[in-house]
Structure formats: C-alpha cells, structure tokens
Design brief:
Strand content: 15-25%
CATH topology of the largest domain: Rossmann fold
Number of strands: 14
Order of helices and strands: HEHEHEHEEHEHEHEHEEHEEHEEH
Distance between the termini: 84 Å
CATH architecture of the largest domain: 3-Layer(aba) Sandwich
Number of domains: 2
Shape: globular
Structural class: alpha/beta
C-alpha cells in the first residue's frame, strides 16, 4: 500500500509539474491602438480580434494593449516600451505608425512587428490590411439608389491612399446608378474625435446631404444622422444599435482570424515577414446586416449579388474606363487597377469636386 501511495504521489507531482510548466513561458503579444476600444469602430474591432486570439490560443499567449497613442514620437515610445518589456510580437494598428514601427523594429531585430495598412516591411516587420474599398462599392450602390437630394456627405480622416480609394470606389459605384450624384467631402484630420466627427456630419447635413459616409472611427456621425432624420453608413463595425433608424449597413473589419493565425505562427516558430491584403473573399472585410426598414428587398438582393461578384472577381471596384479629375485616362476600358495603383492612389476620379489636401 505504501508503495502504491508513493507511486500515486509521484504521478501527481509529475503531471502537476507538466501542467504548470506547459504554458510557463507564453508568448507576449502587444497592440498599439490609435483610439480606445470603446470607439465601437476601428479600435473596437482590433480589440475584438485580440480577444478572439486570446480565446483561441489559451495559455500559449498573453497580450497587452496601449490605447490612445498619437501618431508621432509618442508612438515610438509606446512601441519601444512593449519591445523592451519582453513582447515577442507587436501589432501597430494605424497607418501613420509606419515609420515609428520601422524605427523600433530596427532597434529590436529579435522582436516581430506587424503594421496595419502600411507598406514598409523588413525581416521582422509584416504588413496587413483589408480591401475596405470593396465595401465602399456596396455602400455607393446603395446610396445612389436611396438619395433624394443627390448629395452625399463624406467625412474623411486623413488624405492617405486608403481613404482616397474609399472615396473613389464609393463615387464610381454611386454614379453608375445615379449620374446626378454629388459628393461633399470634409476632412476631419483625425481618426478619433467624436465631437469633431459629429460637427462634420452636421455641416454636411446642413449642406443638403441626406446620406452620411465616414472614414473615421466613432459612431458620432451615425448618431448625428439619426438625430437629423437622414441615413448613414457605420464604420468598421456594425453600429446599428447606436442609430437604428438611419444605419444602412457598415463595412466590418474582422481581424480575429488573422491575429490568431499570426500569433500561432509565433508560437510554432513559423512566423515570417509577409504582406496580407484581404477582402470580402477572405472574410477580413464583411458587411453588416442591411437595414430592411430603409432598403427594399430588391435592393438588398442586388447588393448581396454584388458581394458575391466582388468575392469571385467578376466585379472590380476600379474597372476602366476611368479618368482622373483632369479628364486623363488612368485605367483603360477592360482593364482593372492593379495593387500598385490602389496602394498609391493619390487622385480623385472624374466627377468628384474639390482638391485632395496636401
């Protein structure tokens, strides 16, 4: 009996040791956020992705995030703080963190970095983003059908290619179904400022816009539209619960599978520097439910069919002939814009008034 007890004790100690040490050294994954997770837009979706990563990988990883980090020297200090405190992989989740990410990555060659929506890479720096412009095609088609004033208000954050692509894709789709469409654009020069975003929406509504589009991060524009009795598209996540009577749909950014995969690669020792640009076909970009109170069943079916066509490549956001504002052909008939043009897009298409801020 004593020998049996001794054996059971040894087995218990062994398995206890095994269980306690299996995840004794989890990989540390850090995130740098431009806004707070409570914006219920861009940063919210990144944090949802972080949480999905944690739930999928269990004790194999632990995570940290720093929020409200400005896109300046503060970002360098924040990224460096994570790198210096033992983080193995760091996601920097805004375009203008690009140079700051590269600076810190050069200082910490053994740390892995992933930069969202950028284009600079190194052996220890990957880039990733979504083809959000595909969702703008859907939104533009809806707006072209539903506007009564023929004026669309568009709130831009910063004049970077990602935002300009979205404006162009939206306008091209809207003008195909409604050639009388006009777009009024206000540049907010911020990603996250609810007051400023709401003011921009109200200004556009006062200028006759009956549909508000945004490429900023909060639900403030949608709420302004709700209050004014006009329609709006949410941003980055389904924001319909904040503005149920105005919310048509929204482009939804789904980062969870990507964060889980890249963290698993880190754990497995297979992480390498890559560039990922996923669209509707990969699930990295999705559409929020279409508002049946504001959209007819026929229109909903049209955009569902468009989603299918965008996924299989039979429909492209930028298919020629397309001219720029000066009337110069930039995409020939029968051709589509290649990724190089899309990633560097710095012009408005013909039909959009105004200049891109420099």
């Amino acid at each position: 009996m004593k020998n049996l007890i001794k054996l059971l004790t040894l087995i218990t100690v062994f398995f206890g040791f095994f269980l306690n040490t299996a995840y004794a050294d989890p990989k540390k994954v850090g995130f740098i956020y431009i806004g707070p997770p409570g914006d219920h837009g861009w940063t919210y979706q990144h944090d949802q992705g972080r949480q999905q990563m944690m739930s999928q990988l269990g004790g194999e990883v632990e995570s940290t995030y720093l929020e409200n980090i400005p896109e300046n020297a503060d970002a360098v200090r924040a990224i460096r703080k994570l790198a210096a405190s033992g983080h193995d992989l760091i996601f920097t989740t805004s375009f203008n963190y690009m140079d700051q990410t590269m600076e810190v990555a050069n200082e910490f060659p053994d740390v892995k970095f992933e930069h969202a929506t950028g284009y600079k890479r190194a052996d220890n720096v990957s880039t990733y983003g979504g083809r959000f412009y595909e969702g703008r095609v859907i939104e533009g088609h809806i707006a072209g059908h539903l506007t009564k004033s023929n004026i669309i208000g568009y709130i831009g954050s910063f004049p970077i290619p990602e935002v300009i692509r979205g404006i162009n894709a939206f306008y091209l789709a809207a003008s195909k179904v409604n050639p009388d469409i006009q777009m009024k654009i206000i540049w907010a020069f911020t990603w996250y400022d609810p007051g400023k975003e709401a003011d921009a929406a109200n200004t556009l509504i006062n200028q006759g816009a009956d549909i508000i589009v945004q490429h900023t991060d909060t639900f403030a524009p949608c709420q302004a539209a709700e209050k004014a009795g006009v329609m709006a598209f949410g941003q980055a996540s389904d924001q319909s619960h904040f503005c149920p009577n105005s919310h048509l749909t929204a482009i939804v950014d789904d980062w969870g599978p990507y964060y889980t995969k890249r963290a698993q690669d880190l754990v497995d020792g297979t992480w390498s520097s890559i560039d990922t640009w996923g669209g509707l076909d990969t699930g990295m970009v999705a559409m929020a439910p279409y508002n049946k109170k504001l959209m007819s069943s026929e229109l909903i079916q049209e955009v569902i069919n468009m989603e299918i066509s965008l996924k299989d490549g039979t429909l492209h956001a930028f298919e020629g002939p397309i001219n720029n504002q000066a009337g110069e052909e930039v995409i020939a008939k029968g051709q589509v814009a290649d990724d190089g043009m899309l990633l560097g897009m710095n012009f408005y298409v013909q039909g959009i008034d105004g200049d891109i801020p420099q």
